[in-house]
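Notes, Module 5: Reading structure tokens.

Key idea: the token line is not a picture. It is a compressed description, and you learn to read it the same way you learned to read a sequence, by spotting repeated patterns. We will look at two proteins. The first is printed below with its tokens.
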Amino acid sequence: LFVFLLVLQPESDNCEVLTVPPHIRATFSHRSKQWNVKSTQWSPIHQPTGSLSGPLIQQMHPLRDQKTVALSTETQSTTNGFLRQFGQPRVETIVVDLAQKRVIAQAVEHAVDMIIQHFSGTRDPQEKEILGDDSRTESVGTLIRGPFCSAMASVFADGMKLFRMGGLVKNSLWHVVQASVTKSGNNTIATAVRVVDDLKKHPYMTDDNVRYRTFICAALNHGFLENWLIQLTTKADFLQKYYEPYSLLRLSSGPAAAIYNELLISVQPLSALPFRLYSAFEARQRQRQQEQTQIIRQVKDDEKQGSGVSSSLPIVGFSS
């Protein structure tokens, strides 16, 4: 069992704190005569009433058993929704199941295995290029944007704070992607920055989920996925702003390091595969689905009218 201590900065003196749902706490300081708003969102495993401010994780007693992690947190008592700072905050413990983190990493590994299996039918480089081009082989586009993007989403969603700016802004996977990609001297990350800028300016891409999936596709196209995943765990300010202490990303440099390393190793083979995944893929799919729905509706209407033309109308498929 690992024991972790979260050291929290105390609130300023002479404060009254009111908890305002959902997950918003408003604090009024009589000294400065100002209100401060903070999020009180906490773990789905355990949600104490109170706030966390500037958590500092310190490993105390590492043991051999790595199945769980105990996180000790300081919280304040509450009376009828009001938090008052009398005496010392009480300490509560949250037990984080590392087996659940391993399941997340295994889901990514399984999705990668499916992708490798997709390319395993041939050794010819030109045929592999066709298999990696979603404009010529639609199944690879579905495979990447379906199982693989979903598995990666579980990594980024684990322990992600639902809100920021005191609960006023709801986070999304796309917000995390944007915040994680910052300008640096690293050429690979510079490519990621250009991809994010292009997606932000794309006139027809307004859905954040589509943006997230398209970013993952671009990471495969340009081969920077693994490097980006490594960079994520080195950004302390980013992790503290967007993730809870029990998240896989924040534990990746501590008790979940072996699990995260396994995840990184599992995605390495993808950098050797020839991906050409286009941003218009999902738009093309939606258009074809709409066309198919329209034709099926027309067929049913003709059958009701007894026109006898239903057998001559083609059904639009989803192959290129």
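Here is the second protein, with the sequence above and the tokens below, as before.
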Amino acid sequence: MSGKVKQRLGANKIESATLSVNEKILKECHNLYIDADNGLVGIASSLGLSLLAPRKKINVLLLGNHSAGKSSFINWYIEEHVQRTGVAIETQGFTFITSGRKRESLMGNATLHLYPYFQGLTEIEGVIDYVATEICTSKQKKFSLITFVDTPGLVDGDMSYPFDVNNAILWLGDLADLIFVFFDPIGQALCKRTLNIVEEINHKHPDRMKFYLSKADEAGHESDRQRVLMQIVQELCKRPGLNKCGFDMPTIFVPTLQQKSSRCANQIEEACKEIEKTIQHTIQNTLNSLEKDCEQISDIIDSKLQQDAEAYSHNLRAKCRYGFFLLLGFLLPLLLAMAFLAGSLPKDLLLSTLGRDLTHALDAYLSPVQQLAKAIPDDYHLEALGGLLLFSLLLMLLARFTTCLKSRLSKREKRALLSKKEYVQGHVKDVKVNREALRLAMH
């Protein structure tokens, strides 16, 4: 058993040593949320707050007509032949390409176990049977921080898909951090289905959209390439959602697929820079969200402690009111009984039993009650006694039903809340500050 533990610890050290700074930051932030003992998700849940753990990787969604070069771009980026490529429609479903410790292929529900935040795909009929994951060991470029989402090639006409492809892509667009749209100069670059989906996603997430003229080296001469670009831009500008200032469409092609020399400028590195920029933006957002969630948790704890202090003050006032009514309700019948006994017992018996000083004091205190009793006619003594008893009962009922105590935190619960606040404000925020300083030092 100890041998296995040592092996596991050794593996963790090796993994930690091979992780980049950005990977460590995202992984550590993710672990701060999901930790079994002190995870922010668990702490927030105990306070009635729902938090989601940040992802450890960014999602890059690739869109385009069939044979637009989406799969070829992925293979080039990770420097492994994972996705099939060709003129035919090779990608008929959704494929998630991510990095891992060993090469694996997952299908259907196994993908959802790996990516629980994609569970919403199950609501789209038939799509789960066409979802797959390719895990490869590549560490090229920034692949360890990326999950590529390769989508089916889009075509017009009678082509039917076994699921609602438009709805599925739109749903994935909401979860994507970056969306690459590839237009093929020699294929169906102006496919209406592609343009419709792109326009709808662009309406909700214009800042995530990046457009590229793929396979630019196959577009012929420079004049042909410019003509294709103009046609695509004109078609895009016809749609109000895509007609915007500063529209840019770099020309890219996969260098390893180039059969002959081309004078076409290859801006494929611009796509890599966009990925790196999104990673940096995601890391900063994750750190900001971490601080925001810590503040939310602290505010809720402060609110609960404040409510407990207010409940203490309320209960103290309620108990004083209860004691006053209860004492008054018991005191009147007690004084009446004592006055009756003092008036009916012989004076000598009281003097011998209580002594002279106590007897005089008793007379002094009970004389107002005795005078009040003498002022009531003899015929109404019974009614007066009944009224007095009824009044005393009313005071006791008033004490019972007007005293509502608020629930309070136990000492153990207060200690637990203070401990959670100290952990969140101390340890978690220190981690955030340290990782932010480390990240700034890199740049």
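Summary for the second protein:
- The longest strand covers residues 58-64.
- Residues 1-18 have pLDDT under 50 and may be disordered.
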